[in-house]
Amino acid sequence: MNIINCLIDFSYTFGQKKNGMKSKVMQERLNRLKMEMEEISDEQKNVREGQRQIRDKIEAIESDCGELKKETKMIIQQSARIQVKLALIFRILKAREECDSATAANLTQLLREIVEMEKVIG
What is the pTM of this model? Predict the structure, then answer.
């Protein structure tokens, strides 16, 4: 009986030491996992910050794009008005060249009205 008790006691002690080693290994694994989780958390924060910065840049680009579209539209309108005035001036010169003073006077008056209207509009 005494030998059996010694074997039981030995296996119990050996098992505890073995479990203690397992516990230490598990604790090391847990610590490593915690560190990895913290690193992943930091990386996710960095990714979110990068995404926020990109979103801000995209919004700024979209705003600039909107402004450029407005400016382009205004330039196109100005160009069209200038082309109309140049066409009128050309027709006025042609009418004067042909000694058609009535047509030249009508076209000149039309040109004056367009210029005055532009002044009012701004």
Answer: 0.57
